Amino acid sequence: MTTDHEQWKRRDHADTAQIGLWWLLSSILVSSLVLAVFEPIFLLVAGGCGLAIPFLSSRDAAHAAENARRVDQLGQEAEHARKRTRLLRGILDSADIPMMVTDAAGVLIFINSHSETDLGIGQNMLGRRFDELLVQTQLHALEESAREGTPGHARASILTHAEMRDFEVSGDPLDVSGGDDLP
């Protein structure tokens, strides 16, 4: 299934071949007028070009206006997505527990602020595998089963800032269908 953006991109590419055609007709018009001095038949070519140029230039202006409208709409959609992302990040950061999200390969793609303050796992750890960051095997099994679609819960002692702390840990699968815009 193609997105609106992909459809616009294909349509814009096709429109690009048509825009500016009046420049070509303008050069044919001028050339025909010069050649008409020697061969009067070229006056017909010049007349045809002269009739087509206003039509093509108005069509090009309409295409430019439509493209400007599309660019504005895409800009508004991007701004809306940025605001939604900031809101969701704020909600997740306001939770008073550490949260981590991995992709299908077990690579860390999101952490909230409590992951750093409570566990010492900061933004610089994004892109690393979950099993490289935490060594407890029950956490690895929990994370792997969540990636496979099975939720689970465990109690784990985790070293945080030079002391062991007990945590209730849950591994829950996320349905990200339609979430192609995830990082």
Quick summary:
The protein is of the alpha+beta class and 183 residues long. 58% of the residues lie in helices and 14% in strands. The mean pLDDT is 79.
Overview of this protein structure:
The chain has 183 residues and is an alpha+beta fold. The chain has 2 domains: 4-93; 96-171, Beta-Lactamase, CATH 3.30.450. Helices cover 58% and strands 14% of the residues. It is built from 6 helices and 4 strands, in the order H-H-H-E-E-H-H-H-E-E. The strands form 2 sheets. A two-stranded antiparallel ribbon has the order 1-2. The protein has a two-stranded antiparallel ribbon with strand order 3-4. Helix 1 packs antiparallel against helix 3 (42-94) and helix 2 (21-36) packs antiparallel against helix 3. 8% of the residues are buried. The model has no long low-confidence stretch (mean pLDDT 79).
Helix content: 55-70%
Distance between the termini: 21 Å
Largest sheet: 2 strands, antiparallel
Number of helices: 6
Sequence of strands across the biggest β-sheet: 1-2
How many discrete structural domains? 2
Mean pLDDT: 79
Strand content: 5-15%
Question: What's the β-strand tally?
Answer: 4
SSE string, helix = H, strand = E?
HHHEEHHHEE
